[in-house]
From TrEMBL:
Its main location: other. GO terms for cellular component: outer membrane-bounded periplasmic space. It comes from the Bacteria. Residues 54-315 form the Periplasmic binding protein domain. PANTHER family: D-XYLOSE-BINDING PERIPLASMIC PROTEIN. The keyword Repressor does not apply. This is Monosaccharide ABC transporter substrate-binding protein, CUT2 family. It holds the Pfam family Peripla_BP_4. It is found in: Cell envelope. InterPro entries: Bact_Solute-Bind_Prot2 (IPR050555), Peripla_BP_I (IPR028082), SBP_2_dom (IPR025997). Keywords: Signal. Residues 1-23 form the signal peptide. GO terms for molecular function: carbohydrate binding.
Amino acid sequence: MRKGILSLTTAAAVMTLGLTACGGDGATTAAPSDAASSGSASAPAAVAGKVGVILPDSKSSARWETADRKYLEEAFKAAGVAYDIQNAQGDKTQFQTIADQMITNGATVLMIVNLDSGTGKAVLDKAKAQGVATIDYDRLTLNGGASYYVSFDNTKVGTLQGEGLVKCLTDKKADKPIIAELNGSPTDNNATLFKNGYDGVLKPKYDSKEYVAGPDQSVPDWDNAQAGTIFEQMLTEQPKIAGVLAANDGLGNAAIAVLKKNSLNGKVPVTGQDATVQGLQNILAGDQCMTVYKAIKKEADAASALAIGLAKGEKPTAPATVKDTESGADVPAVLLDPQPIFFDSVKDVVADGFVTKDELCTGEFAAKCTEAGIQ
Ligand code: BGC
């Protein structure tokens, strides 16, 4: 399973792996944190390999801890494969430490959501040097050379956001609206793809003078608090902002909070992404125009299927490839289809089981849920 010359460290890692393989008890890593979880300790693992997953943080979006972790865990448990899922909590040094520990503790497959391509690549390089198979989960590590990439069509996510904003502005009969763009982290390749997507829709409208290009800024690390400060400045400098392209629900919520303070919520359409409970509630309240639902269960299922195959020593095939724009390599990929969600389609997200009526339709939202046909 491992190639290359064995150093003392790798020999130790192989021994750990051997123990995991024989005992099949899915040993935990040396640095458990609050957000860490390891599996297959009770049920004997049917698979020799072990999968390590590093999630990026728990602040840039609710999805990582509420959806991705849950669905990945379910898939690994069902397959009887040993796993260790940890969250780097936005700390790039910690990200690398976790990866080192996972490899030392016998991971044969490493799945990462990078915090930036530079540190992501360092982790992937180390893993590969030790014969550990690699998967980029959700975010492509540029020049990273991961064996697989599993995500959504992220340019399409952006296109849906741009089209969604246009629909909401048209519904409001907006005249030459000034648009603010609140982009995702400049170090996240997805944020670049989202922007390519929505600018593909908005730029022609700026060019034809139908819309006016207003402030346009990236939010470092998708930091929601910083997004609030940035949007507050945008609105101070340009009080006539009439539409906000926010790259995810967290950034959208930050903009909505500022709009609320200025009694502009509901008047200025705001976009989002991730179909978080907060984002969906903002849509029900009329403060957010739309979100993009990405069926994360499908993403987690596709990625875990690859990881489980790799853990069994197979060479799974992927249905597509994506171009790594930095290295020029074609990375075997699974790219899923995102779906736009407006007031009337919030019910589709509930019907898909991604959020429950109980979490969504609390207090003031109960009546809105009925209005939106949520059963
Ligand atoms: C993901 C989004 C998420 C954002 C912030 C992106 O890479 O695709 O779903 O909202 O990161 O975590």
